[in-house]
């Protein structure tokens, strides 16, 4: 329709998710004072709906309920309705998700919460169908019952909401309880390894039956565990679990074999049928993990997967100004003539489509074999579709195929009488043709919001891949994105980060009227990115900015009473709780990553107060780390880095010299989690020499690039050959 029937206040927002709801018959407000004042003035309850633009069930609830005129009228008459994009406001999301999880035993999006006019939650859930069903109460019924309660039992409801808030405050307190020292690293590491080992799927990799998430934090823990226990059977098992999981994921349907990149998670045990949205934070972390896996194993297959992810991000999630977009949706129109979107439509195939695209006879193969036969065999394509009806409740994938590699190149080659090398080329040609055909389909929605934290994770992905794969182009892409953050998401006057910016009408970068200030995770992931970028590029300006941001993070978020950092700043009256987080999930928890950041920053600055802060965070989370470290694998591996003390690898040499570059490449080729790399270029007026006086005493031996291995600013004897350096590492 040319002219929408309804338009609400969300039309003035920048978030793609809020704009998706701007033409609902619901009188939506964004989170803010205008909505709060209206609720107080009219003495109305608030209905808060939280989601994100690539969330499948958010779309479903919008189609069924928020676009329904009658339901819209019930909502507008009885409630002040607020819509929040959880990616813009993780602070608001976490407060109310804490409530929903505590009261319903589960959580997820869309999140639906009812609040008193002073923002205290008293009822909530996730997705509601519009009408009552056999097993579930309908949204319309819930709205009417809650409105009725507010009329009849207002005082009881208010009293109840106060009790709920007190209970939440009690539950969310994480701090030092009489225990002053960090937990013993050896035990934390051993318990975390044991808990991961017990939940590991021996056949398909991963750490749950289904659904299966990539969970890079688990893999990162296992790599660190291996590096510190290389010669033990446990160390060998840790490495095997991580590498097997990465290989199974890369062969699975969760990996987009035609369009590159990884989908968010698999609905089954085999990594086969995914939920098809692609998130930036997964691409960033997985690029780092596949690069690390290559660095350790030397297996080119793993390097190819890292490059595949970075190709996808460079092509489909990159803004021309240098930033990275947030996500690509799961749902899209199957054809340009379709009326409704279907999940996975952009990515799935019917057998006959593939046959028609790949009819060529294959030279040297058994008689009558076509390229289609070879391709379909290798990627598990079936005439009737390869998706089990159990995994397809809405019949959206009936007769369709999600490509999955179930046998090796050698097996497929033998089956058709081909050489493995020849088969590789045939499959590549098949993928190229399918990609061209897919480019004709309507694309899924792209969330062009650019988030500081997720851009940080992606910069780390490019920087770590650039170092491990010796690809300068990736390091340059990381630097371009860091320059983008500095230009569009940092305020030099106040020294503070912003949370988000947006792609505007003519591809310009836009900011909202009142910019959202950065949260803890924005600082932590950007500081990590800048430290990674310094180690990959040895450009000191990135290091200098990282240390400035660390001071700012301390000032805005540090809890001097209970230790650790709060997720959000003090002083926002609309936030009922200041939380710290309690687990590493699809993204690592900010307090986990910050421990390693603080230790690295101390090595580059000599600022020992940061080591003390790292110790205090580990102490604050001590109980959880000792009992259930599997919920905090990122922090568990940080306990080991704290315990083993980071080693400073200092290379004295001319940055442009071939001998210096060779030494740096040697450091980049070895996975060594408990070290930082720095270049002493002889410029005593430079940033590093000003920070670290001990560098002045280190010199080049016989005029050659020289490496020193230092611990607590005391150094080993100098070495000038990459072989000796590798041995030390």
UniProtKB/TrEMBL annotation:
<dbReference type="Pfam" id="PF03190">
    <property type="entry name" value="Thioredox_DsbH"/>
</dbReference>
<dbReference type="GO" id="GO:0005975">
    <property type="term" value="P:carbohydrate metabolic process"/>
</dbReference>
<dbReference type="InterPro" id="IPR012341">
    <property type="entry name" value="6hp_glycosidase-like_sf"/>
</dbReference>
<dbReference type="InterPro" id="IPR008928">
    <property type="entry name" value="6-hairpin_glycosidase_sf"/>
</dbReference>
<feature type="domain" description="Spermatogenesis-associated protein 20-like TRX">
    <location>
        <begin position="7"/>
        <end position="168"/>
    </location>
</feature>
<dbReference type="InterPro" id="IPR024705">
    <property type="entry name" value="Ssp411"/>
</dbReference>
<protein>
    <submittedName>
        <fullName>SPT20 protein</fullName>
    </submittedName>
</protein>
<dbReference type="InterPro" id="IPR004879">
    <property type="entry name" value="Ssp411-like_TRX"/>
</dbReference>
<dbReference type="InterPro" id="IPR036249">
    <property type="entry name" value="Thioredoxin-like_sf"/>
</dbReference>
């Amino acid at each position: 329709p040319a002219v929408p029937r309804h338009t609400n206040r969300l039309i003035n927002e920048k978030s793609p998710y809020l704009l998706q709801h701007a033409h609902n018959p619901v009188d939506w407000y964004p989170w803010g004072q205008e909505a709060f004042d209206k609720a107080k003035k009219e003495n109305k309850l608030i209905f808060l709906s939280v989601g994100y633009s690539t969330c499948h069930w958010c779309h479903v609830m919008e189609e069924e309920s928020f676009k329904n005129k009658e339901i819209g009228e019930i909502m507008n008459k009885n409630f002040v309705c607020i819509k929040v994009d959880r990616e813009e406001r993780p602070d608001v999301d976490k407060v109310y998700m804490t409530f929903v999880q505590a009261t319903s035993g589960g959580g997820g999006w869309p999140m639906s919460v009812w609040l008193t006019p002073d923002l205290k939650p008293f009822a909530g859930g996730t997705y509601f169908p519009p009408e009552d069903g056999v097993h579930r109460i309908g949204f319309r019924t819930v709205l009417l019952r809650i409105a009725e309660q507010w009329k009849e039992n207002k005082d009881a409801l208010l009293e109840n909401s106060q009790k709920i808030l007190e209970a939440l405050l009690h539950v969310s307190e994480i701090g030092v309880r009489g225990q002053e020292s960090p937990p013993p690293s050896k035990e934390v590491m051993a318990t975390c390894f044991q808990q991961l080992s017990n939940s590991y799927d021996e056949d398909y990799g991963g750490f749950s039956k289904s659904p299966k998430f990539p969970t890079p934090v688990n893999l990162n823990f296992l790599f660190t565990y291996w590096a510190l226990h290389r010669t033990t059977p446990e160390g060998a098992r840790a490495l095997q679990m991580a590498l097997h999981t990465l290989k199974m994921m890369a062969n699975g349907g969760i990996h987009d074999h035609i369009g590159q990149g990884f989908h968010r998670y698999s609905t089954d045990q085999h990594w086969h049928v995914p939920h098809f949205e692609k998130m930036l934070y997964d691409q960033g972390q997985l690029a780092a993990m596949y690069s690390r896996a290559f660095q350790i194993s030397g297996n080119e297959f793993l390097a190819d997967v890292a490059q595949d992810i970075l190709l996808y991000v460079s092509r489909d999630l990159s803004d021309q100004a240098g930033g990275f977009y947030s996500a690509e949706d799961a749902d899209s129109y199957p054809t340009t003539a379709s009326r409704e979107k279907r999940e996975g439509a952009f990515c799935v195939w019917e057998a006959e489509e593939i046959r028609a695209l790949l009819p060529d006879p294959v030279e040297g193969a058994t008689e009558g074999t076509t390229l289609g036969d070879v391709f379909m065999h290798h990627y598990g394509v079936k005439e009737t579709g390869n998706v089990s009806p159990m995994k397809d409740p809405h019949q959206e994938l009936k007769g369709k195929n999600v490509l999955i590699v179930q046998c090796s190149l050698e097996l497929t080659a033998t089956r058709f009488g081909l050489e493995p090398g020849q088969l590789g080329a045939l499959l590549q040609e098949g993928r190229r043709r399918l990609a061209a055909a897919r480019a004709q389909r309507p694309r899924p929605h792209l969330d062009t919001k650019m988030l500081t934290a997720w851009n940080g994770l992606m910069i780390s992905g490019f920087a770590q891949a650039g170092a491990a794969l010796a690809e300068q182009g990736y390091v340059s892409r990381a630097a371009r994105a860091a320059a983008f953050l500095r230009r569009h998401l940092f305020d030099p006057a106040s020294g503070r980060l912003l949370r988000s910016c947006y792609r505007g009408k003519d591809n310009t970068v836009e900011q909202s009227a009142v910019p959202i200030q950065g949260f803890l995770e924005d600082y932590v992931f950007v500081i990590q990115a800048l430290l990674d970028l310094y180690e990959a590029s040895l450009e000191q300006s990135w290091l200098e900015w990282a240390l400035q941001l660390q001071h700012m993070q301390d000032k805005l978020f540090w809890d001097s009473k209970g230790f650790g950092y709060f997720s959000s700043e003090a002083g926002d009256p609309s936030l009922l709780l200041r939380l710290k987080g309690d687990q590493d999930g699809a993204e690592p928890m900010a307090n986990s990553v910050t421990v390693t950041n603080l230790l690295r920053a101390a090595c580059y600055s000599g600022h020992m107060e940061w080591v003390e802060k790292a110790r205090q965070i580990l102490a604050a989370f001590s109980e959880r780390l000792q009992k259930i470290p599997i919920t905090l694998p990122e922090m568990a591996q940080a306990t080991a880095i704290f315990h083993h003390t980071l080693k400073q690898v200092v290379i004295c040499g001319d940055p442009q010299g071939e001998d210096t570059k060779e030494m740096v490449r040697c450091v980049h080729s070895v996975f060594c989690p408990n070290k930082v790399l720095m270049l002493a270029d002889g410029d005593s007026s430079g940033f590093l020499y000003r920070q670290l006086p001990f560098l002045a005493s280190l010199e080049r031996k016989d005029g050659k690039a020289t490496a020193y291995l230092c611990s607590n600013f005391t150094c080993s004897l100098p070495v000038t050959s990459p072989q000796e350096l590798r041995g030390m590492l």
